[in-house]
Fold each of these.
Amino acid sequence: MEGNFKAEQRVQFTKGLLDAVGIGAERLDMFFMSSSMAPTLVNTMNLMIDRIRKLGPLPRKWSGITQKSPDMSKREFLFQMLKNMSLKAPEKPVPVPPELEEFGRIECDLTGCIGCKRCGEVCPEKAIDFKTELDLPLILQNIAGSKQERVTKRYMLYKTLAKIAAKPSSKILQVPNEMDEFCKLQYNPKKCVICEKCAKICPERAIKIIKELDLATILS
Ligand code: SF4
Ligand code: SF4
């Protein structure tokens, strides 16, 4: 009942991936027809053959791996293959269709994060880590437009700093190990499977799921 809809979303996403690496979305397509529509099938096949002939072969042969090894996840294999096949570096994030699960990225609002580290503890892929540093320039830049549901001490601290600042902050501060509640979340999009556990457990709702894939970072 749902397979064709899921497949449609995957094809749409894959077209975006192929475009991003310079292969071109038009090499892949999806058509709907029933088993009684033989002439439509033939016409569609001919349409694709014509299209592919016009596009011609890809400019160079693939390099690197072309087969999944047993220790590789499907995700790792996909990213590795995209890297092998890429004809250009991705210029912008690839949109992820709204219903397609497992792809996307997370975004952490540093002005809301209180460094509790629960997100890192629940992440099944170890895609979240922490650095003992405070990105004050980014925090002070974002705090003006930030709307927190809860006014925490942390939030008041950043708000006050932004108000009294005599000049824009330009330095990322090193945080003493004993104060690692001021740590900065480090996110690895290559590992993330968008299980949403981090966003659900965050007491400050500082993590958002964004429906786009940061392919440039993933393939770098
Ligand atoms: S969405 Fe899941 S896999 Fe991705 S960072 Fe959050 S907990 Fe980890
Ligand atoms: S769970 Fe939320 S508040 Fe805690 S470290 Fe992660 S992002 Fe920050």
Amino acid sequence: MLHARHDLKKMIDNDKMLMPTFGSRELREPVPKYELPKAEMRSRSAYQIVHDELMLDGNARLNLATFVTTWMEPEAEKLMSETFDKNMIDKDEYPQTAELEMRCVNILSNLYHAPAEGKACGCSTTGSSEAVMLGAMALKWKWKQRMKAKGKSAEKPNLILGTDVQVCWDKFCRYWEVEPKFVPMVKSRSYSLNAEEVIKLCDENTIGVAPVLGTTITGAYQPVKEINDALDKYNKQTGFDIPIHVDAASGGFIAPFLQRDLEWDFRLKWVKSINVSGHKYGLVYPGVGWVIWRDWNELPEDLIFRVNYLGGDMPTFALNFSRPGNQIVAQYYNFLRLGFDGYKRIQKACQDTAIYLSEKLEKIGPFECLTRGTDIPVFACKLKDGADTNFSVFDVSEMLRHRGWLVPAYTMPENCTDVSLLRIVVKEGFSRDMADLLLDDVGRILTHYKDQPGYKAKRAETKGKVRC
Ligand SMILES: Cc1ncc(COP(=O)(O)O)c(C=O)c1O
């Protein structure tokens, strides 16, 4: 015993002597990058190496490209780090985390005006992508049931989307063998879906329509009510029951607070399911999302698996199994901490900043905004038609990056790829002061190009889906 204690003391003394200064062996030698190192190294050295490599990443707080939360308050961070070790799938072992998940589902279900009678139906996910998969799978299963009941073939399902949908919808269609029927984006329709175009594409094989509340490309809301009303007529005429799934990845945490009278949720008859990202305007660090169904009738029972090997009889409907419980904890913390008024105040502050920034940008340079942050606090702008500039939005994006700002530039989807945009996502953590600093930098960039009349503007390098 004495001997062991002596060894331990020696080890500690040694460790103190070998503090991981940058002169220590581990920090002077090359680090094995693609092979497992043979031996251990001290935790402090490993920490220092990994920490330092990550300094080369962009600064998350200056990341105006992402929709995902980059700032949470210290109490939320504390709670999250206290609960890193909880696996949310172990519902029998962590019944209180499971209870918090159900509280969140109920809160969202109420916020989205699900019918008051009946139990709230929904679950947490890793984000909107998984939530979209689950919502759209339920649409496909329900459609198959309807076709089977009519004695018809269920071989050729299709789904109606705008070409501006986020890539998760393309994935759903390919992975689950559903034909995507796209409404093209055109300038005359303000680059949005509309009811008339949707109805033109509908038929008996349509499993649903998926309008977006706050598109990834411009942040604009698509007209869910108009589509609902047109579908109501169409379904009556044809005897079909084509439903709507609203992709409210961002808007699901904005519209209930800032546009309360906008009908886009379960107030509309044909809206059967909604996805929302808790890690976007739900104000939680990545990755948590939610899918909420209008009621239990919309979630076919045979999509739910029951497992008993964690103890108890646990229903699961998810693409993943194990994942962190701490994001669910943080979502509930936000609900409790902020309440309706707190969320409203934060979203309004973001929106005010987005509107301010979009207006100022138009004043200081040859920019024209397609959106101004009046739907979700996101706006997209292009260079004015006919503007005689020696730079493109790609140049502006690159120059901003030199200062640390991450502002993406990209082309619109097929049909309007000649339009290139800069997009700014204003989130909690981006103050008016930072907006002014960004404007100053844009001003400096404009002067820089003015001083270089011979410079030739960069063109779009890639054509693909816009990332978030
Ligand atoms: C409209 C829309 N739907 C779905 C997604 C995918 O969301 P997530 O990153 O939460 O999986 C995004 C991401 O930005 C989005 O903007």
Amino acid sequence: MDQFYIYVTQGGLYVLFLIYLSRWLVDNIYLKEHHNMTTYCSNHINSHSHKCLDHFLNSDSILDSDKDDLSEKLQMDDPSLVYNLRNTLIYSKNPQYIEISKYSKAQFRELFPLLVKSVSNKTNGFFIEFGAGDGIVNSLTLPLEQRFNWTGLLVEADPRFAAHLHRRGRKSLISSTCLGYQPTSFLGLFGINNYGKSKLLTEDWETYHTVEQMTCFPMYTYLLALNRTNIDLVIIDVNDKAVDYLTLPFDKVLIDVIMIKYLNYNDLAFLSNFMEQKNYETVGIKEKNSFIVFKKMK
Ligand SMILES: *[C@@H]1O[C@H](CO)[C@@H](O)[C@H](O)[C@H]1NC(C)=O
Ligand SMILES: *[C@@H]1O[C@H](CO)[C@@H](O)[C@H](O)[C@H]1NC(C)=O
Ligand SMILES: *[C@@H]1O[C@H](CO)[C@@H](O)[C@H](O)[C@H]1NC(C)=O
Ligand SMILES: *[C@@H]1O[C@H](CO)[C@@H](O)[C@H](O)[C@H]1NC(C)=O
């Protein structure tokens, strides 16, 4: 019997040693290299660095463990929050020309002229699109890139769409993260449903096929991560009451045009009131697509 306990104790110590060794290897080699790359890549967000891209695409699990550190609520301008979000900004793996007319649905082709008019035919502008989908079908920013030489940031939390964005070759930055409806970061539940119907959950999450936990960032943190407070166009398509997501400090940013997908007439009334108080006028509503466009008054 004594011999048995000695074996158990020795075995236990051996296992403990292996656990300790693997943790040490992760901390000292894997994570050190990862953090070095993170620092390097966040200082080079404006270059198409494939070294960074490959690193981030291959390190999902590490990024996930980093995300856990952000589950506590951090203020929208918290430097560590901004730093972490900046590290998610990367370019597409295969930049290539995409034939838009083949993909874009007719009703979106109707919406595009309203958008172009709202930005006064501007060329070389900069946009942020929240809820970018797969970046091709129904994308309003793809023709802006191609015909008006715009660039910007595509934000998409649904991992299936985000994978498309990386493959399809948009010219803009991509962030597969979750826009939140609080002025702080928080750990949100993102419900993944039929294509185009996924959303950040507040209740009724039983109806979703898959629910994924992810860190959600306030809108302003995206602007700070880009180091940019002047934006020509922000598009918000979040399958939810958009006004809740407009947690921006409007006195600190200059956004010329804001285009929002609304849910229903109630939502539309809320939005118009809210935006009027922020000194925006309505320049167009397309009922067929449930989009409203606001422009900052001079
Ligand atoms: C960190 O990464 C940069 C860029 O890849 C590299 O030049 C540098 O040697 C690395 N430093 C360490 C300590 O690994
Ligand atoms: C934008 O371009 C269209 C077509 O080229 C033109 O008809 C329109 O007047 C332009 N609008 C502005 C504000 O420049
Ligand atoms: C298009 O935009 C890029 C920057 O994104 C700029 O370098 C280039 O000069 C622009 N081209 C034209 C024709 O304005
Ligand atoms: C942010 O932009 C400003 C001016 O546009 C520049 O001076 C500053 O170095 C930038 N900071 C970072 C971290 O890129």
Amino acid sequence: MKCPNCGAPIAPKFGEMVITCEYCGSGVTLGSQGWTNIQKQTVLDLKIASVDEVDSIIKPLMDKGLLHRHLQEDSTREEMNLSYIPYWIVSVSARTSVVAANEMAQIGQTATTAALMGVILGGMGGGFGGGGRGGGFGGRRRAIGDAWGLGTSGLRSGTFMLGSFMAFGGMGMGYGGGMRKAEQMDANYNFPVVALKALMEYQPHNYVFNLEGRQLFDITKLPKSVKVLNGDVSEDAAKSQAKTLVDQLQTEKAHAKYHMIQQIHTDLDVGDVELLHVPIWFVRYDHKGKKIVLVIDANSGAVINSMGL
Ligand SMILES: [Zn+2]
């Protein structure tokens, strides 16, 4: 097998899909058209290069809080490795439409109101659901059903409220119109997907690398003592992984922002992909049989993952 860039022999290990040619340093990846050059390959500078610097990042993390006091002293460091890890950076634009119950409606959405709706419904037959109110009303059906289970006390106060409800209706405010609000949450991501299957459990969740500071990858400029790992996740697999993870992230953000989401839908577009090599520290401790793992971005000093803390 030959490097598509310089023609030198390349010897990918079984399963490897992203490798760096040892002769010319170009990135080569296995895709549907065989081994091809990676169009764009970048690298982040190694800034946190010494064990002491890593320790000064880890110590306050491990010793924070009363429960964790002396955690680091009581733990045994089992492993501490620095290497360049390949991440596919997938540009994804997400457009998320959310339909949520609005806050006014939530306040009004008491058992009393729901029971009242049941009373009125019972009296009016299907008529209430007609016309422009139908849309908002349909979504309430379950709440109304639940309210029937409340028994007579709910119904009694419902009856008491009847006058004010009719006045409310008389003001021309459609009940359905006030119930929901549609929101749009758009976001663009340069989403990192770790290109090593063995490191999937350390896949960044909502982490942003310092992409402004990246440079074109040139293996001859990297310190010889730090390993540059090859990847075994293809570009196509990374694209579909990025879509799945961005979809989940958008849903999480929506749930953090809005209560009572009734509908959510995300449209995703995948754009450019590049391979970013990031110097990463993996540090593992044993604390009385329990493992603590920290994954630290050796460019920014930030923690990408922490497990067991
Ligand atoms: Zn080459």
